[in-house]
């Protein structure tokens, strides 16, 4: 544990104020949330953050990913071959640009990207490749200077500190891999948003007179919603 009882609080306040990240407290030297609803409780409100860390001064700093902080994080797990998988993907598609990067105590990395406008990046484990996880909507990461269960500290890569390296959009190929299959098509990102797609699918029921029934339009809308919410139910 750090001897500086204000260290975690200062970090949490800085993430919220300087970078717009929604934060929340996690158990000291652990990853489990201390609040009742975890990352759903995350906030940028300074008074709430101060109250949390006054109660739990040694709490690790959790950063909510997805739309709450307008970021998603590529989690590279060295123990499961994440670097090898990423190297193979970059050889096929091109290198990922430099982005703010955290060195995790387990030997991996957390690479921070801007969240794309008009899309939803979901949290997943291994979906884009072995050892590569995505922390997006409904997920979170533990941020520096938090302490890992193994006693080591999360730290910013000295060549990719968030104060010095800007958040960037992911390359198109990485974005395509992170989006659900229904929306991971070339074209405008806004067209992949579920609200846009559902409106377009619903509108199709009005183009053909035979389909101009409430039941037909409702069925099309329900199909769009089901495909978005339950991508595996096919």
Distance between the termini: 48 Å
Query: How many DSSP E strands?
Result: 9
> Oligomerization state of this entry?
single chain
Structural class: alpha+beta
What does this structure look like?
29% of the residues lie in helices and 15% in strands. With 234 residues, the chain is α+β, with helices and mostly antiparallel strands. The chain has 2 domains: 7-178, no CATH class; 193-229, no CATH class. The chain has a 6-stranded antiparallel sheet with strand order 6-7-3-5-4-9. Strands 1-2-8 form a 3-stranded antiparallel sheet.
Summarize the structure.
The chain has 234 residues and is an alpha+beta fold. It has helices at 7-19, 46-55, 82-93, 172-178, 194-204, 214-229; strands at 23-26, 60-64, 71-76, 101-103, 109-114, 124-125, 132-135, 140-143, 155-156. The strands form two sheets. Strands 6-7-3-5-4-9 form a six-stranded antiparallel β-sheet. A three-stranded antiparallel β-sheet has the order 1-2-8.
Q: Layout of helices and strands, plus pairs?
A:
Blueprint (H helix, E strand, L loop, with lengths): L6 H13 L3 E4 L19 H10 L4 E5 L6 E6 L5 H12 L7 E3 L5 E6 L9 E2 L6 E4 L4 E4 L11 E2 L15 H7 L15 H11 L9 H16 L5
Helix pairs in contact: 1-2, 5-6
